[in-house]
Amino acid sequence: xxxxxxxxxxxxxxxxxxxxxxxxxxxxxxxxxxxxxxxxxxxxxxxxxxxxxxxxxxxxxxxxxxxxxxxxxxxxxxxxxxxxxxxxxxxxxxxxxxxxxxxxxxxxxxxxxxxxxxxxxxxxxxxxxxxxxxxxxxxxxxxxxxxxxxxxxxxxxxxxxxxxxxxxxxxxxxxxxxxxxxxxxxxxxxxxxxxxxxxxxxxxxxxxxxxxxxxxxxxxxxxxxxxxxxxxxxxxxxxxxxxxxxxxxxxxxxxxxxxxxxxxxxxxxxxxxxxxxxxxxxxxxxxxxxxxxxxxxxxxxxxxxxxxxxxxxxxxxxxxxxxxxxxxxxxxxxxxxxxxxxxxxxxxxxxxxxxxxxxxxxxxxxxxxxxxxxxxxxxxxxxxxxxxxxxxxxxxxxxxxxxxxxxxxxxxxxxxxxxxxxxxxxxxx
Length: 429
Fold this sequence. Notes:
Blueprint: H1 6-18, H2 36-50, H3 57-64, H4 73-83, H5 90-115, H6 121-140, H7 148-165, H8 176-182, E1 190-195, H9 201-214, E2 218-223, H10 228-240, H11 244-249, H12 254-268, E3 272-275, H13 282-295, E4 299-304, H14 318-335, E5 340-345, H15 369-372, E6 375-381, E7 394-402, E8 408-415, E9 420-423
Parallel strand pairs: 1-5, 1-6, 2-3, 2-4, 4-5
Antiparallel strand pairs: 6-7, 7-8, 8-9
């Protein structure tokens, strides 16, 4: 297989000389060209475009000056437009030039990786997957414009489906009041749930995961902190309304055994997939989600938690690594057309203030989290800090960012002995 095509590069340059307006439509940059002379010619064409000068042979030769000999001389430049009299295939030729460039950069990266092979095979796998994603992202980025009619027809189809199926416009959470603020978790969104340790992040995530499973979604649950057995203990306790300690220690009453059996039966009917391998790289997570998406089109992803994900390669700082991870999670939501919900830790800065309610600046190793996230919800329990509070067992879900809706606070009851979250109005039901 050839990693370049001189003839195709000549066709692109010749088309621009024949039809100068094409320089304003091109998707290429000089680095896309393999031939050194072609890179010089195209670079000058782009500079002429910036100065709004017409791209024609005489001006181009004048701009090249002494370097005209390096590109093949005046005769070679003149031959470009003469050899390719048709510009109808310009877009096709452009695409070929770019594809050849992507092949070359991929091979170069593989050679560099070969020369500096990591000692750890997992790091090697992460590097290879990262390279694959970079090239894949560039290929997918070529979508271009779509007429509004097409988008409107899709919108009508979606609205009809929602009307017929009675479905919400996104994945519902366990909180009715929270759904009213966020508008549910939409497809292609990154949603961050953040809190200090021991406030209830993991329990909240598990409640929402089983809610999504009960609503018919396929759930991908990545637990980088706790093993599967501990998650199952908590999920069974919440579903069966059983004291979590009794489930953990296998000390169940007769009534609790009945509810345990019912809880297991209910969970078994849900389409939930758990990955509890620690130290997962973002590349491994993206690969696993893509694989699941192929078999189950309607998925939702939960991750516990963001700061435990490994970037898969070396970064100048931890903040840059976390920023790369949050950006990758957002891309994962887009490419798999699904909501992604990631837990995040908050810094100790919360503890230094009189009002302990979290703020954006409390996001630990925030990087680009605030920028990438579509929604950011903080969990806050007043009884965590104030034993005399009137809000015993009340958790505040503080929606601090909502790209497509409002912000505000929704209160829920935290039934801690079960690890269960319920709406305020249903706490006695």
